[in-house]
Specification:
about 160 residues, alpha/beta, Rossmann fold, 6 helices
């Protein structure tokens, strides 16, 4: 087992509206970095971060899960948070430990209330952030619309994050 110094450990929180694809993104990261041999699926109840019986039954995250991935020589603890507002305390706890955030947005659903709440959390905790757009394989997906909506809502603040 490798031992990592604090300079080589990062905590990254995944935020976004419920059902936007946070847990699926964690599965892809785990698979890509070799932690798992295959990607789990929420519908099949075999994801590494939604393992609680209630999460499997309800098909969504109830508590924050830490999934460590290794990238080059850095250990990145991915904090997969619930997106539904009933469990907002879980997201707030994860934000206290986070170094940065990834705000996940579904290209078919677009910018939702959970997206805006995620941005507000990042502002509150002064976290660097990026957006990750999911569901691009859906016929109703529109990356352009997501970017236009984000630009309309956040204006120059958004461009600060796009171009830095």
């Amino acid at each position: 087992m490798n031992v990592y110094t604090s300079e080589k450990i990062r905590n990254v929180v995944l935020l976004g509206h419920g059902g936007c694809g946070k847990t699926t993104l964690v599965e892809a990261m785990a698979y890509t970095t070799g932690i798992t041999k295959r990607q789990g699926k929420i519908e099949e109840g075999n994801t590494i971060s939604d393992y609680d019986k209630e999460e499997v039954k309800r098909l969504f995250s109830i508590s924050t899960t830490v999934v460590p991935v290794i990238w080059e020589d850095t250990k990145i603890n991915i904090l997969d948070t619930p997106g539904y507002f009933d469990f907002v305390g879980e997201a707030e706890e994860a934000l206290n430990a986070a170094d940065a955030a990834i705000i996940v947005i579904s290209a078919k659903a677009g910018v939702e209330v959970g997206t805006m709440r995620a941005w507000d959390f990042c502002e509150k905790y002064n976290l660097p952030r990026m957006f990750f757009v999911t569901d691009m394989d859906d016929d109703n997906a529109s990356y352009r619309q997501v970017v236009e909506d984000l630009t309309e809502i956040y204006g120059k603040k958004l461009h600060r994050f796009i171009y830095q």
